[in-house]
Amino acid sequence: MLGLRYVACDDCGTVAATPATPTACERCGSTALTDLTDRFREPTYFADVD
Ligand SMILES: [Zn+2]
User: Fold this and answer.
1) pTM, full prediction
2) Can you give the pLDDT at residue 27?
3) How far apart are the CA of 50 and the centre of ligand 1, in A?
């Protein structure tokens, strides 16, 4: 994943992919951020469920 980190804003739901972990949401400025990076790395996250 080229070292990108995936961070979701708990307030507005924006997901950002950035090289460095942000301290605040780019859209609303909230600092209530959840790091999704580990979840994206889970192979089953992208698995198709038919
Ligand atoms: Zn936000």
Assistant:
1) 0.68
2) 93
3) 32
